[in-house]
Structures are given as C-alpha cells and as structure tokens.
Amino acid sequence: MADEAVRRRCATPAFGTVLTEHMVTMTWSAERGWHDGAVRPYAPEPVDPATAGLHYGQVVFEGLKAFHQADGTVAAFRPALHAKRFRTSARRLVMPELPEALFVDAIRALVDADRRWVPTEPDRSLYLRPLLYAADVSLALRPASTYRFVVLASVTENFFGSSGAPVSVWVSTRYSRAAPGGTGSAKCAGNYAGAFAGQREAVEHGCDQVLWLDAAERRWIEEMGGMNIFWVTRGRNGAVLVTPALTDTLLPGVTRDSLLTVAHELGIATRESRVAFDDFTAAVSRGEVTEAFACGTAAVVTPIGRIRAGHGEWHVGDGGIGPVAGRLRDALIDLQRGRVPDPRGWLVHCG
Ligand code: COI
Predict the structure, then answer these.
(1) What is the C-alpha to C-alpha distance for residues 226 and 338, in angstroms, rounded to an integer?
(2) In whole angstroms, what is the distance from residue 170 CA to residue 346 CA?
(3) Dihedral angle at the C-alpha atoms of 134, 138, 141, 142, nearest 10 degrees?
(4) Going by CATH, does the domain composed of 4-157 fall within 3.30.470.10?
C-alpha cells in the first residue's frame, strides 16, 4: 500500500478499526506443538462454522502497544509481561501455553513488518492484539487438540478519544463480571462478552463504563469493563494512590502494574487493598477522594468524574485529570515513548 493510502486510512482511527497490512499466524497441534509461524499479508482466517472456539469460547487474547520512540526507532511496551499473562490465561482455559520468547518474537516481527504504520502523533500508537483460539473443527465438548495463534496490529488513538475528559461509571448490582474460582483473572473472550450486559446497563443509565463489584457479596470494588480502577485519597499523612488488591476475580493489568511501579519511584504512597463500595463513596462524600481514574493498555489513564449507582451519585475532581493521575500518566507516556531512561528494560525494540 502506498504511503498516501496508509495516511488516508489512519485519518480517524477509532479504536480497533484501522488494521495494518500484516498479521502473524502460528498453529499448535498435539503432535507437532507450535509450528508454521509466519508474518503474512493480513487476510481473513478460514474459520469453519464448526470451529470449537466459536462454540465453547476457548479463546484468550492480549492487548499491548508499540510506540514511536524519541530516537526514531519503534518499541513494544512490556511484551514479556503480556506474554506471561497470555500463558496464564491459556493455562486457565486448558489451552497450550505459548513460550514467552515466541510471543515476543511474533510482536517484534509484526511491528517490524508494519513499521510505517506506527504513528508518530503523540496521542497515537500501534495496538497489538495477540489471540489464541481453539481450532478443532468439531462440536465435541472438550479442550481442543489444535489451536491457532494470530497477532493483529491496529493504529489507535486512546480508547476514550483524545479529549481527555473524565468518564462516568455505573455500578452494576444486577450483573456480575467474575465469580471466585471462575475466569476473572484470565484475559479470555467470554469475560468481555459477559460484561456487555453491564456495559449496556451503564449506557442506559447515562454512564460511559460499568464498574464491577465482587459477585459474592456485591460489596467490594473490583474493576471496570476492560480496565482497572485507581483513586487518590487525602489522609492525615498525605496523598495515597489506592487500587483494589488482585484476586482471582480481577484481571492483573499491565498498566496497573506499571503505574504502581512508577508511583513508587515518584514517591507517591500506594495501597492495594479490598475496599467496600460504601466506604469508598462515604470517603468521596467527605471530600477525601480527590481523584479517580481508569487505566489500561487501551484506556491509558482516563479520569473518572462521576460515579452512579441505584442509590446515589457522587462526583470526583473538577472536570479534568487530577494532579496525581496527571503525573503518573505523563511519567508512563515518557517511558513508553523512550523520552526517559528505561532501567527495567520494559521497552523491546522491534526490527
Ligand atoms: C486493553 O486495554 O488492551 C484491553 O484489553 C481492553 C480492550 C478489550 C479494549
């Protein structure tokens, strides 16, 4: 594709709609293990209607980004941690675990092949979508014996657009995202399909996103529909960045982990703990919660300005990004774009 055509297609890259020219594919079978890995021109997969993954949801995925760097190169952000989570997700769904080195090699090869699609604009990046699905052509109800690994790349702006305006959240007490012992900490397709009803309920109540409470007691704050949540409290000893502690019903976000690390380096106190929604809203009402924000690979750091539930509504902040969230977001973006040293080797250069 000519450069001009690439530029035209990237004019308005709504999340996930502008896919690049190449993809990675690889197959796993019980007899041959991982084989036939290749970067190839983007094309539809030949999916038989009896493909097991379509019927029983044996499908896991990842979402990570590659960024244009200050020195003109291109690098993926924390692909090794995404590779590790991909393995954990696969294990939970009784799927073969792709070795981390193969995952990272696939990311590097695809980004290198589609290097000219990596945006240089400050609020854009290349979003990478590794996917593993059960490929048996069979309706047998059991883990498949063949799997297909695919990586796609998509030119993207921030998930919530580039305005940076705060989003609102609706607390669902009608639906649940994840139950103890279930698949909540795996990044599997079914978790997202199951969350759509809560997301629709949020929109019906005039909110942008759903905020999930735990399924057992409907009491503890967990996560949002595809991102983790943080807030900042002002206590006697200064500001504390708070996020729900990880359990088997929360997705361990890579951005969540990155922000906790960055906060530590910036000298911002952090706390990971179980927090009851009622205690949280009481603290909001007392003016002790000064900021709230969503974070994720796609969402980056997006302020939350309004929280709504069946029994009330609460406002946080003053309509923009708060000072702590702003510092964290800037520090994260500086790291991702190679503007500051990378002592932990989070950036992996591609090509
Ligand atoms: C990501 O941030 O990569 C996510 O997984 C959210 C996505 C499903 C939109």
Answers:
(1) 26
(2) 34
(3) -50
(4) yes
CATH topology of domain 167-332: D-amino Acid Aminotransferase; Chain A, domain 2 (3.20.10)
Q: What's the CA-to-centroid distance between 73 and ligand 1, angstroms?
A: 25
- Ligand 1 pocket: which of 86, 159, 295 to mutate (most atoms within 8 A of CB): 159
**What is the C-alpha separation between 111 and 66, in angstroms, rounded?**
7
**Which atom of ligand 1 is closest in space to residue 296's alpha carbon?**
2
User: What are the percentages of helix, strand and coil residues in the chain, rounded to 5?
Assistant: 25, 35, 40
pLDDT in tens, the chain (351 residues): 677 777 777 777 788 889 999 999 999 999 999 999 999 999 998 899 999 999 999 999 999 999 999 999 999 999 999 999 999 999 999 999 999 999 999 999 999 999 999 999 988 999 999 999 999 999 999 999 999 999 999 999 877 766 778 999 999 999 999 999 999 999 999 999 999 999 999 999 999 999 999 999 999 999 997 899 999 999 778 899 999 999 999 999 999 999 999 999 999 999 999 999 999 999 999 999 999 999 999 889 999 999 999 999 999 988 889 999 999 999 999 999 999 999 999 999 997
Look at ligand 1, atom 8, and give the residue with the nearest C-alpha: 226
- Ligand 1 binding pocket includes 146 (Cβ within 6 Å): no
Q: Where are the domains of the chain?
A: 4-157, 167-332
The Cα–Cα gap between 337 and 229 comes to 23
Does this model's pTM top 0.90? My answer is yes
